[in-house]
Amino acid sequence: GVQWNLCEEYDGSDLPLEPKMIKAWAGFVKGLDAYGHPVTVLNWHPLAWMPFMGDKRFDVVSYQYRGDVDYGMKVEDIRNRLLKAGRIMPVGMDEINHTSQKDNDGCQVSGWLRVCGQDTIRKKIIYPVYLSGGSVELILEELLETEDFGNYDKVWDYMFYARSFVETLPFWEMAPKDHLLIKAKGKGEVFSNTTVLAIYLPEGGEGYLDLREMRGPFRQQWYNPRKGVFEKGHRIIEGGDIVSLGLPPHSASSDWVVKIENIPSSERKRIS
Question: Is the pTM of this model over 0.85?
Fold first, then answer.
């Protein structure tokens, strides 16, 4: 359960260090740790993680970027940079926006602080990051002065529900394919391989999915990210075309997750 994060914002103004020194530290720690725990370092400036791409002394990306941005796209950009560098690593989005003690509160900016309500963290960070192939570390409104973690109960639930959903997927084989989602409300996410697709609809509504390159019947299920449950029932859709996802089972303007899974040939006789 240990991860070596070598420095807090190594390139920050209070403690600016050179990438060469961080690389030396990483090599030193890897030489000491007989158990091979993953090594990383946290950046401050957006480009400060780039010198470590492809370096075998690093095993995880610990990437910080705050603001009103598409965090799913940030993860996908880092994944692409890792591919080009020839070393694939887990992408951790760390300390991105502060988590408010309130649930439905949008985002409030005060100086360098950007504090977002817990439902906004779910919609703007947790699912866009997870369904782009990344992970999330939260930073709380009260920073190190937090005494009651119960003030953030909703966001702990939201993260648990998201993790529970992702654990139903072969996520280690999946990749972002957002272009497969058509005519959806808001900026949706698609995470897929050749047999399973996970779709996030941040504003609900009816979206369309491009399944022209995928064959066979699929089982479609709705997952409620606010409650952490699959809705009862499912529908069968056919690949080979652009298909409608239909409307969510209720609360149609809220965010929803859709799981679409190819039905194995052994099951097809039972549903035909």
Answer: yes
Say which residues have a Cβ less than 8 Å from residue 8's Cβ, sequence separation at least 6. 15, 42
Nearest C-alpha neighbor of 246 from the set 209, 206, 190, 219: 206
Nearest to 234 by CA among 253, 213, 218, 220: 220
What SS3 state is found at 225?
coil
Backbone φ and ψ of 197, nearest 5°: -130, 135
Provide the b/e sequence for 74-86 (b: ≥16 CB within 10 Å).
bbbebbeebeeee
Distance CA 155, CA 161 (A): 10
Q: How far is CA 155 from CA 103, 222, 223, in A?
A: 8, 21, 17
Over residues 229-264, the pLDDT tens digits come to 999 999 999 999 999 999 999 999 999 999 999 998
Q: Over 80: is that where the pLDDT of 15 sits? A: no
Looking at residue 37, its pLDDT comes to 97
Single-letter amino acid code for the residue at 224: N
The pLDDT of residue 112: 81
When pLDDT is averaged across residues 161-176 and rounded to a whole number, the result is 97
**Lookup: tokens for 223:** 């997952």
Is residue 270 predicted with pLDDT exceeding 80? no
Strand partners, 218: 237, 262
Residues of the chain above pLDDT 90, percent? 89
Q: Long-range pairs for 182-190 at CB < 8 Å and ≥24 separation?
A: 182/207, 182/208, 182/209, 182/210, 182/242, 183/207, 183/208, 184/208, 187/70, 187/72, 187/128, 189/72, 189/127, 189/128, 189/131, 189/132, 190/131
